[in-house]
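hi! just following up on the protien thing from before. the input was this:
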Amino acid sequence: MSDTSNNESNIYSHTQSYTHLITERHDMIKPITYHPYQLGASLYMPATREDIWQVIKRDKLPTINSIIICLEDAVSHNDVELALERLQTLLSTWSAHKDTINKPSNNTQAKIQGQPTRPLVFVRPRNPMMLQQLADYPHIDLLDGFVMPKVDMCSLSNWRMACQNLSDDQLLMPTLETAALFNPHHNQELAIGFKEAFSQPVFALRIGGNDLFATLRLRRPKNSIVYDTPIGTLAYQLLGCFVPHGFYLSAPVFEYLDQPMLFMQELGRDVSLGLVGKTVIHPSQIALVQQAYCVPINMLDEAQAILHTEAKAVFKFNNTMLEPATHRAWATEIVNRAEVFGTINNNSNEFNSRM
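and the predicted 3d structure came back as:
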């Protein structure tokens, strides 16, 4: 056999091995109770705040989808002990009233029962050592899961050790926000590592936009969406790397409150790329996120037609060619999104929200 043939054979073998690696590990992802679209509008709240319980039981911010109680960047070093004390107090209060609210749901069952559904609740520790500490807290299993900051191949083993004493039902959200993420080879290793490292489900991967800007000695420009910046280019690469491995990604924060039109423009791109939620910094952003994720009725009609048990291999619908073999994955996600956010009329701004 010629050298050329040998080289072609080696390339083919490598490709086959890599495909096998993806599909086999893709099947290893555990089923989870919630769909990542339920992250919706996610609000970081410093653990030092004393009103987090009011948010959980929906006395405050009644429409928020998910909250992340922060012990990292939102808490100064001098306030860490206070933040930990208040988290313990919150968990104790929650435990005493846990039967008065339902777990998050994307259906109406909890409302029929006459009790409010709480938002998804996560905690972001400062580092793996703090996560190990939190694992021993009484009632820590009330949390839906944890956001893990600055996860890459260098820190993955430490995070793995920190998660060993957590419940297997708690959800993990590693944050992609270090300089290592600019290396595509590193990201392929990380995608495989995420599947092997944890016994808990990886609910979503969070794109840490501001930290990624900082690695380039930049800050997000005020007059452009993130996708018109180097971090937007990276976001496309992260989608191409992690989504084929079965992961969902969430969108980075938009920190300018005086640019609502630009915020909506960026949300449109977030949604079109299949990102499952967006961090908000102010209650005024919550409704905008939820409306952006509402599914146009004609899009839902197409998705349901694709998923119909008697759908033809190729057929015309709404002046569009639909092909279930290639469109099924998209259609499934559209139905999932509509279950969480409801639908919007294609010809008006009226939307039927599930919130």
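The longest strand covers residues 40-46.
The CA atoms of residues 10 and 16 lie 10 Å apart.
cheers
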